[in-house]
Design brief:
Elements: E1 25-28, H1 36-52, E2 57-59, E3 68-73, H2 74-81, E4 95-98, E5 104-108, H3 111-126, E6 134-137, E7 143-150, E8 167-168, E9 171-172, H4 177-188, E10 193-197, H5 208-221, E11 227-232, H6 236-239, H7 251-267, E12 273-276, H8 293-304, E13 310-314, H9 334-339, E14 350-355, H10 370-373, E15 378-384, H11 400-407, H12 420-424, E16 435-439, H13 455-466, H14 472-484, H15 488-508, E17 547-548, H16 566-573, H17 583-586, E18 589-590, H18 601-624, H19 632-664, E19 692-694, E20 705-707
Parallel strand pairs: 1-2, 1-3, 3-5, 7-10, 7-16, 10-11, 11-12, 12-13, 13-14, 14-15, 15-16
Antiparallel strand pairs: 4-5, 4-6, 8-9, 17-18, 19-20
The protein binds beta-D-glucopyranuronic acid (BDP).
The site of beta-D-glucopyranuronic acid has 10 residues, from loops.
């Protein structure tokens, strides 16, 4: 198996013969070929054939036989079969599923909901969950989108699974088959929107030829209830439209956007909306003209409003030339500083899309304080499914535990319960819109993400967007059964590896909230702690020979702790109450500072790195124990990645330990750092055709030498 069917394999279930009460036919209450309800009927037919080996006919009439699976919208159902009170609680996109009695009823609040219900029923069957159930399932939030950072030339920013299937050579692709397949995957996890191009957007997306292409893509994804959205380049009226300005308050600019928006909606009448990255990392924006971010966002809001579109305006606004010499400067403060005075000044169809932490998808961050600052503005959380700073799918890192940590965090706004999940749903501050955006970056590689095991992240992203109260392990095991089957050992082993994976990665990369410590200048992949300081990007560690960490206290530091509501601010302001895993995020301490565990910071660094790398070694034999229980292709492709991770975790371990050992001059109590008795250094071997090479940074190879 090459992974292309992901969790929709519809593999036969062993206990299928126990399921005697399967209805005899499928009744889809919509006969239009490209309607989601019709698609749901087809999906049920195909799925049941695979899972239970039974061919069901699809009845095109409106009559329910003596035993059938009925799928349709609540309105269509009532029209055909009369009143139906059981589904009165349905909300937008929600569904009712009942498998009690002779008939299975899958009733959506809308067509999309009916399709979600069909996927839910199939997921139950595929997991051997045959017992009768009746329930309504409604979404936690209306916006459940993915962002795909695809470039027009076909490359993907921070994508690790090959080139784009949306764009090639500057244009939307002709063949949209894979886009439709992806929409099907997304529908099965109840994602309802997709922004297909990079937030660092290219204005040529707005050409007539590309608008036609957007129409093609939207047509391919619409049957799955997935609405298309696009990222915009703020300067388009000037760079693409030929105006001499892109000032959002200039009437000609406003008119230009209205006109282009109308053209797009003419071809894509149900377009989800726009995503905008402005005044961030060199991107143009309203600040160029001394206009506010709200002025910028509202310009797009006005253009999309008549069409029912939303504007996702990113809170990731900062200048990447921050002056490091000023101790008070802090990139983590930027979002609140830029947005706090704009609360209530955004139009109703604007949603501020906030990265989960104050910096940038690091292995551990506190939640962004902006979630608790905006009370009169709709917000969404931005998560990264593509693990840019977390091993780029060459390492196994199951991300759901990290996301849950943020979603369940209680920010105590106005001293009232204020979990992030309830803020982004709109519930806490009574906002009409809100939800999640996951940066996924699938590519043409058959596995979608470049790694079979990484698909648990996409799966759980969609499920959490629908229901953030789900447990990480429960979602993971659903995914394992659907992806690899029922073997107990397979389920237990992949569960154990995945549930240990985030802690392992954190242990051998950046500890105690110091951030991931990847190379910061572009790749964001391997270890390079030195690169964090001495640049304008603001992901600083402020490490010197004696001490380390960003002092973000109000008392002595950058004041960031004070951006949180008082109850939370107190915890982070005080070194005693700050949890160890965020110590260096909020405080600057000596390497000899004692943690709550009784260890010094530096010894914790050493120990954690050895522990994390040791855990990564165990993933290899654990995976090998599944040989013969998983098809050969997926078995060997995963093994390849696990072997790589095992090796790379040692590179991480040694690089970080050596770097801080060198900087602090404090030895490892266990005498492991710089002492590798069993290691054969490549440069010491007899070299035939190779030359030695002094690596930079020095700590990324033992002995600081490599061969090339
Ligand atoms: C950074 C990524 C960069 C993105 C940026 C963003 O390295 O590629 O453009 O985030 O989210 O983490 O805009």
């Amino acid at each position: 198996e090459d992974g292309a069917s992901a969790w929709l394999r519809y593999a036969p279930v062993p206990q299928a013969s126990n399921y005697r009460s399967l209805p005899l036919s499928i009744v889809a209450l919509n006969t239009t070929t490209s309607s989601p309800v019709h698609i749901a009927g087809k999906e049920l037919q195909e799925g049941i054939k695979g899972i239970l080996g039974k061919e069901l006919s699809i009845a095109d009439g409106t009559k329910r036989g003596s035993s059938s699976i009925v799928v349709g919208t609540i309105d269509a159902y009532k029209k055909t079969f009369g009143d139906f009170e059981e589904a009165d609680d349905l909300e937008e996109d929600g569904f009712f599923l009942s498998t009690v009695g002779q008939n299975v009823r899958i009733i959506g609040q809308n067509q999309r909901g009916a399709l979600y219900g069909a996927f839910e029923y199939l997921s139950r069957l595929a997991q051997g969950k045959f017992s009768p159930v009746t329930y309504v399932s409604n979404p936690h939030a209306p916006i459940r989108w993915v962002n795909e950072w695809n470039n027009m030339d076909g490359s993907i920013e921070r994508g690790y699974a090959g080139p784009s299937f949306f764009f090639k050579n500057g244009f939307v692709v002709e063949n949209v088959t894979r886009a439709a397949e992806y929409a099907r995957l997304l529908a099965s996890i109840r994602v309802n929107g997709i922004v297909i191009n990079n937030v660092n957007a290219n204005a040529t997306l707005l050409s007539a030829r590309n608008i036609e292409g957007l129409g093609r893509l939207a047509d391919a994804m619409r049957p799955y209830g997935v609405q298309l959205g696009i990222s915009l380049n703020f300067a388009s009226p000037q760079t693409f439209g030929g105006l001499n300005t892109f000032d959002p308050l200039d009437p000609s600019v406003d008119a230009w956007w209205t006109n282009i928006t109308n053209q797009i909606y003419k071809r894509v009448p149900d377009m989800a909306g726009y995503l905008v990255k402005a005044n961030s990392e060199g991107q143009p924006g309203p600040l160029t003209y001394n206009r506010t971010l709200a002025d910028g966002a509202n310009m797009f809001a006005r253009a999309t409003k008549p069409h029912g579109g939303v504007v996702m305006f990113r809170a990731f606004v900062y200048d990447n030339h921050i002056n490091e010499s000023n101790w008070k400067n802090d990139r983590a403060n930027a979002a609140v500083e830029f947005f706090k005075n704009l609360d209530g000044r955004f139009d109703d169809n604007v949603v501020v899309q906030i990265k989960f932490g104050p910096i940038d998808f690091q292995v551990r961050e506190p939640p962004s304080p902006l979630f608790s600052t905006l009370h009169n503005t709709s917000t969404a959380i931005e998560l990264q499914v593509t693990p840019e700073y977390l091993g780029q799918n060459c390492h196994l890192v199951y991300l759901s535990p990290q996301w849950k940590e943020i979603l369940e965090f209680d920010l105590r706004a106005d001293d009232k319960p204020s979990k992030v999940k309830d803020i982004i749903s709109g519930e806490r501050f009574k906002r009409p819109l809100g939800g999640s955006a996951g940066v996924v970056n699938v590519g043409t590689n058959a596995t979608w993400l470049g790694s079979h095991l990484a698909m648990s992240n996409l799966y759980s992203y969609g499920r959490l967007a629908w229901d953030p109260s789900l447990e990480s392990e429960q979602m993971l095991q659903d995914w394992i059964r659907l992806t690899f089957g029922f073997d107990r050992k397979v389920i237990d082993t992949i569960t154990e590896m995945s549930m240990k994976s985030r802690a392992a990665y954190e242990n051998y990369s950046g500890n105690l909230g110091i951030q991931t410590l990847t190379d910061i200048l572009y790749t964001h992949f391997g270890p390079n702690p030195a690169s964090q300081d001495g640049n304008g990007w603001g992901q600083w560690t402020r490490a010197d020979g004696f001490s380390i960490g960003m002092d973000r206290t109000v008392k002595n530091g950058t004041g960031n702790a004070g951006q949180y509501p008082p109850a939370v601010a107190r915890v982070f302001e005080n070194i005693e109450t700050t949890p160890d895993n965020l110590l260096l995020w909020f405080h600057h301490v000596n390497y000899t500072h004692l943690l709550k565990s009784g260890k010094t910071v530096i010894q914790h660094f050493y120990d954690a790195h050895y522990e994390g790398a040791a855990t990564a070694q165990t993933f290899v034999p654990m995976w090998e124990s599944l040989k013969g229980k998983i098809d050969n292709q997926r078995y060997s492709e995963v093994l390849f990645r696990q072997v790589f991770q095992a090796g790379h975790s040692i590179v991480w371990r040694d690089a970080i330990s050596r770097f801080y050992n060198n900087l602090s001059g404090i030895p490892d109590q266990a005498k492991r750092v710089n002492n590798y008795p069993y290691r054969v250094e490549a440069e010491k071997m007899k070299l035939d055709g190779y030359k030695t090479y002094a690596v930079n940074p020095f700590h990324t190879a033992s002995g600081s030498m490599a061969i090339v």
